Amino acid sequence: MKKAVLPPDSLTNEAIAARLTNAADENLKKGLINKRNLVYLELNGCSGNIISLLNGQNPSFEYTLNSLVDLRYSNSLMAAEGEQASEKLMAVLDEDFILAVEGAVALKNNGLYNVIGSLDGQPLTGLQAATTLGERASHILAVGACATHGGVSAAKPNPSESVSLQQVLTDREIIKLPGCPVNPDWFLGTLAHLLLYGEPETDNLGRPLMFYSTLIHDRCPRRPFFDRGIFAEKLGDKTCLFKLGCRGPVTRTDCPTRQWNGHVNWPIGDDTPCIGCSQFGFPDAMAPFISFDTTRVVKDE
Questions:
Q1: Which residues are part of a known binding site?
Q2: What is the pTM assigned to this prediction?
Q3: Residue range 4-42, pLDDT digits in tens
Q4: Residue 187 and residue 219 in contact, taking contact as beta carbons nearer than 8 Å
C-alpha cells in the first residue's frame, strides 16, 4: 500500500497567517519561546482597528491575548480606568514589551487634541504616550491607516495637526499595517511572526511582504472583465468596477483571497469599488471613492 503523499503547505497569504499563529502557540506550549508583553495604544482615530481585531477568528483575538501575549494596556479592553490605567501603562516601561499603536498622533497644542487619560493629576496625551513608550519598546507596530500615514485623522483640513506614528518616532523602525481598518490576520500574523522569528521582511514603506506584496488588481476575480474591456456602469454591476473609481490597481493587499468578516466577503464581492484604504495617502489621495469617469486608464496614481 502506497503511503499517501500530502500536498505541500499552501503558500497563500491567508494560510501563512494561520500557520504563523499556530506555530507560535505550539512553541509557547513547548517552552521554546516566551509570551511577550503587549501594549495596545489607541490614539487619534475611531477605534475601528481594535473592533476589527475582536472579529479575528484564526485564532480569535481573545485567544491571542490569553495564550500568545500578556496584554498590559488597552484603552478599550482593560478593566482599570483613570489614573490607575495610566499607572499600569507607565509601569511597563521597566519591562520588555511590544508596542502596537492605532490612530494618528495629534500635535496641536502640544498634543492636547488627543488626551487618553491622566497621570499625576495632569492630562496624558497620545503624543506623550507614543513618545515615551516608543522610545522603550522592543518592537513597534503601526496598526491601521491613521497610525501608518495619518489616514482619516490627518485628512484635510486636519484641525488636530495629526501625523503618522513614524513622524513622531523618527529614529525607530516601525512595522506598518495599513488598512481602514486593518484585517485581523494582518495584525495577528505579524504578531506571531515577532514571537517566532522577530520582525518580518518588509517593503520600502515598512509593510510586511507576506500581506502587502501583491496588487488587488492582480488577484481580483473580476480581472478577466478588465482585460476584455467590460466595465460596470453602475454600482451593483457584476463586471469590472475600474471605471467607477476602483483603486485595486494601485492598492497592495490580499483582500481578494483573504476577505473579511470571517473570510466571507469584501467590497468588490459586494459590488462596490475598492477605495484603497490600505494604500499610503488614503483617504485624500484616493478620493473620490466613487466616480463615473469612462475615460479613466491605469496609471501610477
A1: 46, 146, 180, 217, 220, 240, 246, 255, 274, 277
A2: 0.90
A3: 333 344 555 567 777 877 888 888 888 888 889 999 999
A4: no
